[in-house]
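Reviewer comment 2.1 asked that we show a complete input and output for one of the modelled complexes. We chose the acetoacetyl-coenzyme A case, as it is the one discussed in the main text.
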Amino acid sequence: MDFSLSEEQCLLRDSLREFVLREVSPEAGELDRASLFPARAIRRLAEMGLLGMSIPEAYGGAGLNSVGVALAIEEIARGSASLAVTVSVTNSVCAVPIARYGTEEQKRRYLPQLAKGNILGGFSLTEPDSGSDAAHLRTRARRDGDSYTLSGDKAWVTNVVEGQLFVLVAATDPSQGARGLTAFLVEKGFPGFSFGKVEDKMGLRSSLTGGILLQDCRVPGANRLGEEGQGFKIAMTTLDGARIGIAAQAVGIARGALEESLAFSRQRKAFGQPINQFQAIQFMLADMSTAIEAARLLVHRAAHLRDLGNVTYTREASMAKLFASEMVNRVAYQAVQIHGACGYSREYPVERYFRDARVTTIYEGTSEIQRLVIARKLLESL
Ligand code: CAA
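Response of the prediction step:
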């Protein structure tokens, strides 16, 4: 068993760590407070080739494997969870399904643009009345000659407004349930497409999340992704991979919370000594550090299985997402506790980490859905 990273992976991790420290962390708090999209950092990551980190080199991407992507997302999330989800989503739930299920023409048309950062991508499955029960979609897609007409409301889509391309799932045959769904590549410029309200969120305030409204939106037949009826499987297999990214994001936020707590507890004095000399604080730091390592191992194991290419990793991806997202909420809580009243102030980054951590047990499948997936796999194996 070899837990070591390759020289290339260490280089990627270390250079991103330095970039995040220098360019992302210093502005993350201010952008969060003003709810501003991290446009400058996105441009810089595009220059570094990381907006297309999951895209094969043949289409202009960096061609990183899943372990590489997990390392990158952890580092970015260390400085800004908003930036991390923006980058994770354009790769894992937009570029990846195009690379996997797209026609050659779709790949040539969209992947190089995504890789250069000329366009940003998103994924649209959820609706106002359909979250965990993802097969019950109201958005309808009707065939109309050479194209489809899509009507319905989508909700909680990451990268709205700034995003130009969305992998969007709609019902072509509602009587067939999960087997009656189809995926489409929908551009924001298509007639009948508009963005709905942008959510005023508790956390991830520098990322844009909101609705998509489709009013007889005309989507060319050439923009159907995969076959009719394949949409649910495309969505589920895509989420299997993407959940590893959210788990990596959780590890990154937790690491930020730990590192800030280490620094704070070294300089903050109480009862005549730095508070890191008290066992109460040391035990919290020890627990935080241990939990982060355990989560990272689950993330890397799921990513490694995905990279093998010939094994299913649904269960391991859900385990990584479940454990890491629950872990970061505990760790962020402890970080605020260590900071005392300062942790409750927006002046300190742990207040942001605490809010940013919250959604990780909700989006890309709640903890309850991850448990359901894991339990089903366990029962199947009996
Ligand atoms: N891989 C491949 N196929 C899969 C699959 C997977 N992981 N999971 C299910 N399927 C297949 C099943 O094998 C089944 O196929 P057949 O019809 O051939 O038998 C079919 O899909 C239906 O499966 P289920 O009966 O298991 O479907 P279900 O209705 O019980 O739902 C679920 C299963 C796990 C609850 C699923 O609905 C789910 O994951 N829900 C959560 C959705 C989610 O994560 N939403 C987040 C959206 S993205 C987001 O958060 C926004 C963002 O931008 C970040």
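Strands lie at 121-124, 140-144, 147-158, 165-171, 181-187, 193-198, 209-220, 224-225, 269-270, 273-274. We note this here for comparison with the apo prediction described in Section 3.2.
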